[in-house]
Design goal:
The protein is 47% helix and 8% strand. The chain is of the alpha/beta class and 336 residues long. The longest helix is centred in the C-terminal third of the chain and has 26 residues. The termini are far apart.
């Protein structure tokens, strides 16, 4: 049997306290956050759902009604130039609504969830202090949690880490998927797999399970879009076909030199096509399949991580009616 962890020195009470907060301290923090939420000067709306569920349109209509600004929580849409393959909201679709944290990262950027948490909270708190309503919209569950909840990232302890050399790429890939389900990493990317594996174990506890993860820092109006699976899959298939008609292959050709594209659904498959590893039809089929699998993971994540959210069934044949129903449920401009 492999020795998973290197020998560790005696426990350091100071470090242990940083990792494990007492129940009394947790209750005290909860009271502080309750007071903060109660004194919140404006409303925070969270629009979430699987890819292709209509989040963009819903978020813009909410922002229009409540005179709000939008913070993006879709990690792929944060990168410049990746427009077609990420179905990035266009200037026309924005309808003059101010959007934050979208189309701002260089493709060489190593932007982390921790970075997003820092930048997103700064923007969110500034807007709320100004009495401005905010709509957070996206499908990247971990980013949403990091932004709106008491989600902490423990510092790494260099004396406590797994011996990655004892494990093959397949095992590390499996564990990386378990730890960070939304992370797209190739099985041959050994360095990145080791980094994920080491980071998780070095924190002594999977970061997704830290004790404050379900404690919201804000008073949130939840809008979770829950489409019928078959309808969603049909929309995904049609979107992929539309992407190719809109120039996805040309977009990938233009930016194929950037390693980032190898990790994103839609781009990595198109790269395979450009290398003559698969046919165009095989490429489309792969993208549709991988996107459907991703949507399924998203729905599972939202169902288990946001159990108190308000879920809305979606009628795509009468989508405007669905939006009207959501707006009615959200109530007047100022609910207090």
């Amino acid at each position: 049997m492999f020795n998973l962890f290197k020998k560790k020195k005696a426990s350091d009470p100071v470090k242990d306290e940083a990792y494990y907060r007492s129940y009394d301290a947790y209750e005290e923090e909860e009271d502080i956050y309750f007071e903060k939420r109660n004194n919140q000067k404006a409303r925070v709306f969270l629009v979430m759902g699987p890819t292709c569920s209509g989040k963009t349109k819903v978020s813009i209509e909410i922002a229009k009604k409540f005179n709000a600004e939008i913070i993006n929580a879709d990690k792929e849409q944060m990168y410049k130039h990746l427009n077609i393959g990420t179905a990035k909201v266009t200037k026309e679709e924005m309808k003059g609504i101010k959007h934050h944290l979208i189309d701002f990262l260089d493709l060489r950027s190593n932007y982390t969830v921790r970075d997003y948490q820092r930048d997103g909270r700064k923007i969110l708190d500034e807007l709320l202090d100004q009495g401005k309503n905010v709509v957070v919209v996206g499908g990247s569950g971990l980013y949403i949690k990091a932004l709106l909840f008491d989600y902490r990232f423990p510092e790494e302890d260099p004396e406590f880490y797994p011996e990655c050399e004892n494990f093959g790429n397949g095992y590390l890939k499996m564990k990386a998927t378990q730890f960070e389900p939304f992370t797209e990493v190739h099985v041959n990317n050994r360095r990145r797999l080791e980094r994920i594996f080491t980071r998780v174990f070095a924190s002594k506890e999977r970061i997704c399970n830290n004790c404050g993860k379900n404690l919201p820092l804000y008073d949130i109006d939840y809008v979770e879009l829950c489409p019928e699976r078959e309808e969603l899959y049909d929309r995904i298939n049609k979107r992929v076909d539309k992407m190719f008609k809109s120039g996805l292959v040309e977009e990938v050709k233009k930016y194929k030199r950037y390693p980032k594209l190898k990790t994103i659904i839609g781009y990595k498959e198109t790269l395979q096509y450009l290398k003559n590893e698969i046919t165009l039809e095989e490429c489309k089929t792969l993208i549709k399949r991988n996107t459907r699998h991703y949507a399924k993971r998203q729905m599972t994540w939202f169902r288990t991580q946001f159990m108190e959210s308000a879920s809305y069934s979606v009628d795509y044949k009468h989508f405007n009616y669905t939006i009207e129903r959501i707006l009615r449920c959200l109530g007047p401009l100022n609910k207090k």
